[in-house]
């Protein structure tokens, strides 16, 4: 047997009315959440029970933001259909509302910083706590994001500086190696020049032969060298003995 259609009218039984309110309220909140998620819509739901108890639901944005958006939209729509007199009258009516709105915002600001909390009920304090928790989560998320970005940027700079440092160290080592090779080549060239100069400097063969073997006495060595073969600068002197000279040279030698 199918379920019959329920007639929409006030439920007279107090208990049944309260049970129906609890069930329909839960279903209404569930439907509001579903439409906000599935359709990406901003939803604000406010329900007061017969006892004056508040039940509300809002999407990720706060209830105040949605209400402000609604008021701006309603105000702009009314302005399009107003005459000049109606506009002036509307300003007279809007002024007290704006004053009250300013007072509400100032009171909310005071509540957010932990002031003027005595007039708030338990439900209002819980709602305020939830709003502050949501704000803290967003702030911490943004802070962590900035910290990660800063750390990532510093790591990139560190890698860049390390690469530059390694390049400079490599250049310094190559320069030192090049200077060492040039110094070694210069030393080898100097040694080669010294060896060439040493090989070119040789005692005259005739002088070394004329000196002969060393003698124990200084005078004997000198007399022996002069007696055997006197040489000065590689030129041989004419011996004093003329016994072996031809007779036609004796006359010129004696002169």
Automatic annotation (TrEMBL):
It is found in: Nucleus. GO terms for cellular component: nucleus. The keyword Oxidoreductase does not apply. Keywords: DNA-binding, Nucleus, Transcription, Transcription regulation. CDD domains: MADS_MEF2_like. Its main location: nucleus. Residues 1-61 form the MADS-box domain. Probable transcription factor. PANTHER family: SERUM RESPONSE FACTOR HOMOLOG (PTHR48019). This is Truncated transcription factor CAULIFLOWER A-like. It comes from Olea europaea subsp. europaea.
């Amino acid at each position: 047997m199918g379920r019959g259609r329920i007639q929409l009218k006030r439920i007279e039984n107090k208990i049944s009315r309260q049970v129906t309110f609890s069930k329909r309220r839960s279903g209404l909140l569930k439907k509001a959440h579903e439409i906000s998620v599935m359709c990406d819509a901003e939803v604000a739901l406010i329900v007061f029970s017969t006892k004056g108890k508040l039940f509300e639901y809002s999407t990720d944005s706060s209830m105040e933001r949605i209400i402000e958006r609604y008021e701006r939209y309603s105000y702009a729509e009314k302005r399009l259909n107003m005459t000049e007199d109606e506009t002036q009258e509307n300003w007279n009516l809007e002024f007290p509302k704006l004053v009250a709105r300013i007072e509400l915002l100032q009171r909310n600001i005071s509540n957010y910083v932990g002031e003027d909390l005595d007039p708030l009920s338990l439900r209002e304090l819980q709602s305020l706590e939830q709003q502050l928790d949501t704000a803290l989560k967003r702030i911490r998320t943004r802070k962590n994001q900035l910290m990660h970005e800063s750390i990532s940027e510093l790591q990139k700079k560190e890698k860049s500086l390390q690469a530059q440092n390694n390049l400079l160290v490599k250049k310094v080592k190559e320069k030192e190696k090049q200077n060492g090779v040039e110094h070694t080549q210069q030393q080898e060239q100097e040694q080669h020049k010294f060896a060439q100069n040493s090989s070119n400097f040789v005692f005259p063969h005739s002088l070394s032969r004329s000196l002969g073997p060393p003698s124990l006495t200084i005078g004997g060595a000198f007399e022996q060298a002069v007696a055997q073969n006197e040489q000065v600068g590689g030129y041989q002197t004419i011996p004093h003995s003329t016994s072996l000279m031809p007779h036609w040279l004796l006359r010129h030698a004696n002169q």
